Structure formats: C-alpha cells, structure tokens
Amino acid sequence: MTAINKDLVLFNELVEVLIAEEFENPVAERIDSNKLYDSIDLSLNDDGMIDDEFKSLLSNVLVSTPKTATNLFFNQLFGGRQSKAILGDLLAVMLNNSMYTYKVAGPQVGIEQEIISQSCNLIGYGAKSNGTFPTGGSMSNYMALVMARDAKDPMCRLNGMSKPLIVYTSKESHYSNSKNASFAGIGRNNIRYIKTDSKGMMIPEQLEEQIIEDLKNGGIPTYLNATAGTTVLGAFDPIDKIADITEKYAIWLHVDGAYCGSVIFSEKYKHLLKGVERSNSFSYNAHKMLGTPLTCSIILVNDKKQLHESFSNDADYLYQTDGDDFNLGKTSFQCGRRNDALKFWTLWKSVGKNGLEHIVDKQFNLATIALDYIRSNPDYTLYSFDDSISVCFNYKNIDPTTLCNALYEHQVTVVGFGSFKEDTFIRLVTINANNEKEDILNFFKVLEEFVAKTPELRKVKEVIEL
Known about the structure:
This protein is of the alpha/beta class. Among the domains are: 3-67; 97-341, 3-Layer(aba) Sandwich (Aspartate Aminotransferase, domain 2), CATH 3.40.640.10. It is built from 16 helices and eleven strands. The protein has helices at residues 3-24, 36-39, 51-64, 83-95, 102-105, 107-123, 137-152, 156-159, 176-183, 204-216, 239-248, 305-311, 341-375, 400-409, 437-452, 456-465; strands spanning 130-132, 165-170, 191-194, 220-227, 252-257, 281-285, 297-301, 380-382, 390-395, 416-420, 423-429. Strand 10 and strand 11 (423-429) form a beta hairpin. Helix 1 (3-24) packs parallel to helix 3 and helix 4 packs antiparallel against helix 13. The radius of gyration is 24 Å and the shape is globular. 44% of the residues are buried. The model has no long low-confidence stretch (mean pLDDT 94).
C-alpha cells in the first residue's frame, strides 16, 4: 500500500471520529485561549511523530475544533455541509491544479467558466459578461473597486492616483469597504457612508444628496457598493432605485451579495435583487447560502473587458498555449490559485438549479419558523423582519452579549450577537439548510432551559442597567 493509500485510510477513520463526535457533542468543548498550547500538543519538532500518536493527536484536534456543521451552530454566515460539494473539494485537493492556465488546469477551466456563464445568465448580464473566483467576499469587493477606479481614471494604472475619487456605501455594509479604499489608494476619508432606513437598507435620496455635495466640492463620484444581505440584519439595498442614481452620475455599481446573493437561484426570493442586471459587477459566496466548503466566491462583471484591463499582465513563462478565454490568470487578482470551482460544480451538477433553489428557500423557511416562535412568545423581543435569514431578538431582557458568551462557554449552542442603531441583540443565522423545524425549535428550548438554570444571567443585566 502506498503512502497516499494509507493516509486516505487514516482520513476515513478520522472523519468517522469527527462525525460521531458531532452527533454526541454538537458543540465542541471550549479551550480557553490562554490554555490552548498546554491542552493540545501543537508543537513542531525535529523528529516526526509515529503513526498511533499522530492519529491520536489529530483526533484530539478534530474534536476540540468548533463544529460548524452541527444543528447547534448558528453563529456565522456559513454552516452545515453539502456532501456533493465536499466530494468536489476533496477531488480538487487530490488533483491540485492551479487555475491560471489551461495548460495546467485543463477541463477545470471549463468547469469554472460554465459556473460563471450560468451565473451571469441568472442575473441578466449579457454576452459580454464574465467573471472569476476570488479568495472571498472581501477580495470580490476589492476587485470591483479596482475596476471602478480604473474605469474612472484609466491612467491610474500607470501613474497612480491623480484624482479625488469618491466611494459610496451604506452604514451597514461589510467592513471590507474601508480596507479596500485604503488598499486601492483612494483613501478611507473618501468613503461616504450613506444612512439606512429602519431595516438597514440604504436610503437612495440620502445617496443622491451626498453625490451632489461631493460634486460641488470637486470630488469625483466613482463607485457605489450596494449590499444584498447586510451582515447583521440581512437587509437588501434597493438596487433598482440605486441604479437610477448611479446611471445618472456615471458611477460604477457593484452589488455585494457575499451573504445573500445566492437568492439568484430562487424564483421566490430573487425579487430581493430587483435591478441587479443594471449593475457593473455582482458577487456572491457559494460557501454561505449554498453550503459549499470555504472558500467559494464568485465575482461577475457586465463587461469582461474591465476584468482584463485591470488585472491582465503578460507573462511569457506562463501563457504559452491556448487563448485568453482559457488562461484565467489574465482576469484574476492572483497568479497561483486553487480550484474553488469544482466543489460548486459537483454540487450544482448533482442537484441541478432546482436543488440549489431548494437549499436557498429552505433557509428562509427555517427563518420563518424562528420568527413565528419569537412572535408567539412574550418573553422575546424581535428586531428583524421577514425575507431575511438573520433572525435578531432578545430573551427576557437579558444582556445578549453575556447570554451568547455564556451559551458558548458552557457548550450549549454557538450563536452570535449584533448591533443596529441603538440596539444590541442575539443574531440567529438559519443558513444551515440541513436543519429542520425541530432543530430551530430545539435551539430555543436549550436557550430557555439554560437561562432557567442560570439565574445569575438576570443579575448581570440588572447590574449593567444600574
């Protein structure tokens, strides 16, 4: 038996350990960060570890790592597993192709391009559209900003920044916008954060007022980041109304759908993206709503020349065969790039567009179950709304940060908290489509039982108020 065969046997044994552990203990036992290196042997030494010890150590690492696929994990904007996507990811690891040229990626180039082509069709982009797979949602937003910068100031690529370019986004948008303005040379002080309404949606009238003000002051409105699923409340900016304004003032419109852009697969919920076909670029993360393993991010552009003009560089040592349409390194930010497309393709191919639609719709159905429970129980205060998979609430007026931390520290469930305007609350994310109604109701059950046997939580709230 070869070394790889032996290690694949070991892999299967470890996976069985992990799955059994997830069933028995859905929440991993927490290790205090200041005790981590004393609890698990993570040291790297001169001599290698022998097989049995190595297996034992790996088992300990697995069972101690936060379990993001279980029915008690509601903390992040990802969760659960889609098995066919895992299959694709494992195959991609075994193949170990880099996606910059057809010469080294072969059919994997076609797989990536098919996903991009079908995604462009779903949002209504035309024949000139294309896209690529960045390393995540933050990088998708960065690439969109760079393309907007270069479209507004073409000489910037050669001479550097020479004009006061202005960026617009909502107060509830992803934090990457601030970093990206710095990286792109535009500057954080040239970002305008537009006010939002009671649901966290950008107010178009406020946007236009700010644009007019910037024009009066000699600024050059350049880029607008609209959000399809804000990080806290899961709100969708009114893209159609925003597009009226960006077209009027010749501003690049990017729709950041990292969180909830996958509603493009749902006939029932795609109306939340009304007007997306008018955008210059759009991004979504299949590792969020669609459940593929991290990371799987896609950015699409309405006109593929923008990708080429901003990111293409000739390199004779790389691009030696085939045309530009098959040498994907010419339209991506990276050179060496892992194959993130195969895991999405194996999922899409196995369940079809209808299967992806079911995955998306299931998450909204689970959110509705949670909303109905909260609305029917006077011990809860609701802060969110329909058509969102972020369910935000408080329970018995207990401080949400204290409650969430206590639930985590006592290995009861993993759920986070968030803030909007003056309120802070628990944020339950129903993004795991493998969950069922009973899993959502069980979350509330374990929360309530934990509070009932932990009276000090009420005292903490009283102290904070005093």
